[in-house]
Design brief:
Rossmann fold; 9-stranded antiparallel sheet; 8-stranded antiparallel sheet; 18 helices; binds adenosine-5'-diphosphate; binds magnesium ion
Length: 643
């Protein structure tokens, strides 16, 4: 076994790998960018090496600098995590050339699966079912249109070099093909520097079911399937294992196909074979098709670990160090059911905008495995994925595990940032999901209902007011009993709520709003108007949070500022979040109408169009393409059109 490894990654996956390495007695080296100097993965590692600037291109994608760090610290192997350099065959070759072990597959295996069209041809030859479609070289638009007609609509156009759902277009009818092709090719060229596309049959009620495989370079085993059908814009949201309604027969067929796929390329290490599955009439042995292979550890690997008891990172280290596969196929079995939810700092009602800021408070319930790269007090940086944690639960069966997931989502406490907790919780309670009726369109169909944020009721506001004044026991260790009445103004979004709190006795309060008065008692539990309320109140600086099945957060308004006018004049287009200015369409002097697209801001995986708030003339453009901007930065100024 190695004595020291370097982890060429950050965040939760870097921490996850280090935990197993430490359990195995393997020392660890972290690498970090400017933005990550004080981050959790650096604190966890035995040693840490600074590798450059905050943008991934200046640090986590610098293979040469990372290899130098490994050599300097005496690490024998590099674990790439996921993303960044994990699927980069040139990096694998550079590691080998430097005498370092890459903990993952060979460069050859990565290349074989790197382009979707070539991978599919290869899989077809190996006898693995692939989605019917056109995988050819001829990219002439009229030829592609003819191929689409042959396949039969609806079809999907996919960038062969694509990933993360980019460069992909669904085409419902022949008349829309030409435009969709142009759009897909432009996106592919822009995103991946390669505009080749393939065309395939669009599966009508698709499920995404993937199989975890593990190879030793010659033989492979599979560790059953994960269902990742709950997706938003082709991004996974909640994953589970095993797949609902999976039969032994279909599982055996999918597992065998996945093993065939892995062995066909001499695969070594952890990998995932993604299948698209027709869910319209139940799972069938002839109803699944190879979609792509991810030649790395997958984000959602914890659900597989939960049902198999295998530590996949431990297997990765053992196999990379030359040990045989720890278990044979016959020794692997499924125990119970598991779900993973991806907790993000994002503003769901605002269209899932990534959020940044300081996580003032963070507490995960015991019932979950929480894989997290952040701690209370850490900052979510604009440079990386805004993931806070992956929350994984395990139960004896699907219903039990889903119940646990819902409970975990209710009792996870995050302060200092908006999160997608309410959205995840609504999903966990979704009736169709509860019945196991999953397909990749579920979230989009029910989006309106799923994105509704819980509204704080009077009881929550009353507790917030008491908390804001520091009158609750948690704040004092004892209750203030002196009769006194104080005013506190709380702000939640646009709304300001003025409250008056009177202390009646030890742990007894009266809280008055404009139109109601509530009595509150704090004993072992909170009691509001005679009703017991399960809630935790946390006061942090200028904000107070009430965790009551959902986190409600209020800014405490400084009385001197309460009347200040904070309405803008509508003349400035500001960055709604930190990000990269992808494109600027506005030019000074241009006449614009409300709703016109003035610029595009890219924040992590998403592009956000910035629109003119009203009719006017562009007075000034403050930014240029390629600029990195902070939240609130002025981008474009408007002025009134001269009559
Ligand atoms: P997985 O397929 O492992 O479940 P995803 O589908 O969420 O992971 O993401 C696909 C790939 O994109 C993974 O390699 C993941 O690490 C990478 N990725 C995810 N988020 C980001 C990000 N914000 N920036 C760069 N790469 C990312
Ligand atoms: P990426 O590399 O962007 O992850 P994939 O080929 O893995 O691209 O597809 C991403 C998602 O798109 C899948 O998880 C699935 O939801 C959907 N999808 C892909 N192929 C099809 C298809 N033929 N029919 C219907 N949906 C599909
Ligand atoms: Mg995929």
């Amino acid at each position: 076994m190695f004595t020291k490894i370097l982890i060429a990654n950050r965040g939760e996956i870097a921490c996850r790998v280090m935990e197993t390495a430490h359990d195995m007695g393997v020392a660890t080296v972290a690498v970090y960018s400017d933005a990550d100097a004080a981050s959790k993965h650096v604190a966890l590692a035995g040693q840490a090496v600074h590798i450059g600037g905050s943008a991934p291109a200046d640090s986590y994608l610098r293979g040469d600098v990372i290899i130098a760090a490994a050599l300097k610290t005496g690490a024998q192997a590099i674990h790439p995590g996921y993303g960044f350099l994990s699927e980069n065959p040139d990096f694998v070759e550079a590691c080998t050339a430097a005498g370092l072990v890459f903990i993952g597959p060979s460069a050859k295996a990565i290349r074989a699966m790197g382009l979707k069209d070539a991978a599919k041809v290869l899989m077809q030859e190996a006898g693995v079912p692939v989605v019917p479609g056109y995988l050819g070289e001829d990219q002439d638009p009229s030829h592609l249109a003819t191929e689409a007609d042959k396949i039969g609509y609806p079809v999907l156009i996919k960038a062969v070099a694509g990933g993360g759902g980019k460069g992909m277009r669904l085409v419902e009818a022949a008349g829309e093909f030409a435009d969709a092709l142009t759009a897909a090719k432009a996106e592919a060229l822009n995103g991946f520097g390669n505009d080749h596309v393939l065309i395939e049959k669009y599966i009508q009620q698709p499920r995404h079911i993937e199989v975890q495989v593990f190879g030793d370079g010659t033989h492979a085993v599979h560790l059953f399937e994960r269902d990742c059908s709950l997706q938003r814009r082709h991004q996974k949201v909640i994953e589970e294992a095993p797949a609902p309604d999976m039969t032994n027969e279909v599982r055996a067929a999918m597992g065998a196909a996945a093993v065939t796929a892995a062995e066909a390329i001499g695969y070594s290490g952890a990998g995932t074979i993604e299948f698209i599955v027709d869910g319209a009439n139940g799972l069938r042995v002839d109803g699944f098709w190879f979609m792509e292979m991810n030649t790395r550890l997958q984000v959602e690997h914890p659900v597989t670990e939960a049902i198999t008891g295998v530590d996949l990172v431990e297997w990765q280290l053992r196999v990379a160090a030359g040990e045989p596969l720890p278990k044979a196929q016959g020794d692997l079995q499924i125990n119970g059911h598991s779900f993973e939810a991806r907790l993000y700092a994002e503003d769901v009602p605002a269209g899932f905008l990534p959020a940044t800021g300081t996580l003032t408070h963070l507490a995960f319930p015991e019932a979950a495995r929480a894989d997290s790269g952040v701690r209370a007090g850490d900052v979510t940086s604009p440079f990386y994925d805004p993931m806070i944690a992956k929350l994984t639960v395990h139960g004896a069966n699907r219903a039990e595990a889903l119940g646990k997931l819902a409970r975990v989502l209710e009792t996870t406490e995050v302060g200092g940032s908006v999160t997608n907790l309410a959205f995840l919780h609504a999903l966990a309670l979704h009736e169709g999901f509860g019945r196991g009726e999953v397909d990749t369109g579920l979230i989009a169909r029910d989006l309106a209902a799923l994105v509704v944020e819980p509204v704080a009721d009077d009881a929550v506001v009353a507790l917030a007011a008491i908390g804001a004044l520091g009158l609750d026991k948690a704040a004092n260790g004892f209750a203030l009993w002196a009769p006194l009445q104080r005013t506190v103004v709380l702000r939640s979004g646009e709304e300001e709520i003025a409250t008056k709190v009177a202390t009646l006795g030890e742990g007894r309060f009266e809280v008055a709003f404009a139109d109601a008065v509530h009595t509150v008692a704090q004993g072992a539990h909170w009691v509001v108007d005679g009703q017991s309320v399960t809630a935790k109140v946390v006061l942090l600086g200028e904000t107070v949070s009430v965790f009551a099945g959902h986190g409600f957060h209020f800014d405490i308004v400084d009385p001197l500022e309460a009347d200040a006018n904070h309405a803008g004049d509508g003349n400035l287009i500001e960055a709604p979040m930190p990000g990269l200015v992808k494109a600027v369409f506005a030019t000074a002097g241009q006449v614009v109408a409300a709703g016109d697209r003035l610029a595009i801001l890219e924040a992590m995986k998403m592009e956000h169009a910035l629109l003119a708030i009203r009719d006017g003339v562009v007075a000034e453009v403050f930014v240029a393409e390629g600029d990195q901007v902070e939240a609130g930065a002025a981008l474009i100024g408007l002025e009134e059109a001269e009559e």
